[in-house]
């Protein structure tokens, strides 16, 4: 059985949450695979000056989650599509249960 990928977050800014006592992403956020030096959409973390947030899951920065999305201004649409979040109102993906040979 295949494991689902868990994406971390890379962001253009950061802020300190007094309640949780940890730093959280702000500004523009991108999905990032742990162990890689680039985002899912292909931006280099170093050249784009993005900060990594390995303790924050990708699903927490989505605005509809309400988790760590307080200071998030923009979610990268290419990363959102690759990491599994489509636009609001999209139909679910087609699933081929028994494809023809």
Short recap of the structure:
By secondary structure, the protein is mainly beta.
Report on the structure:
- The mean pLDDT is 82.
- The chain has one helix spanning 77-83, and strands at 8-17, 22-32, 51-53, 72-75.
- It starts with 7 loop residues before the first strand and ends in an 18-residue tail after the last helix.
- It contains one helix and four strands.
- Strands 3-1-2-4 form a four-stranded mixed sheet.
- The protein is globular and about 55 Å long.
- 7% of the residues lie in helices and 28% in strands.
- The protein is mostly beta strands and 101 residues long.
Q: Main attributes?
A:
101 residues; four-stranded mixed sheet; single chain
Shape estimate: globular
Assembly status: single chain
Query: What characterizes the major β-sheet?
Result: 4 strands, mixed
Low-confidence stretches: none
Task: Label the structural class.
Answer: mainly beta
Mean of the pLDDT scores? 82
Question: In percent terms, what proportion of residues is strand?
Answer: 25-35%
Helix content: under 10%
Rg from Cα = 15 Å
Distance between the termini: 22 Å
Strand order within the widest beta sheet: 3-1-2-4
| Tally of strands | 4
- How many alpha or pi helices? 1
Could you give the order of the helices and strands?
Answer: EEEEH
Per-chain topology:
Layout: E1 8-17, E2 22-32, E3 51-53, E4 72-75, H1 77-83
Parallel strand pairs: 2-4
Antiparallel strand pairs: 1-2, 1-3
């Amino acid at each position: 059985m295949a494991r689902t990928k868990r994406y971390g977050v890379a962001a253009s800014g950061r802020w300190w949450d007094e309640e949780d006592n940890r730093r959280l992403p702000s500004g523009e956020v991108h999905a990032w695979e742990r162990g890689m030096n680039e985002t899912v959409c292909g931006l280099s973390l170093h050249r784009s000056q993005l900060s990594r947030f390995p303790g924050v899951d990708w699903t927490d920065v989505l605005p509809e989650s309400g988790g760590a999305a307080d200071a998030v201004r923009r979610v990268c649409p290419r990363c959102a599509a690759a990491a599994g979040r489509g636009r609001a109102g999209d139909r679910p993906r087609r699933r081929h249960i028994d494809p023809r040979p």
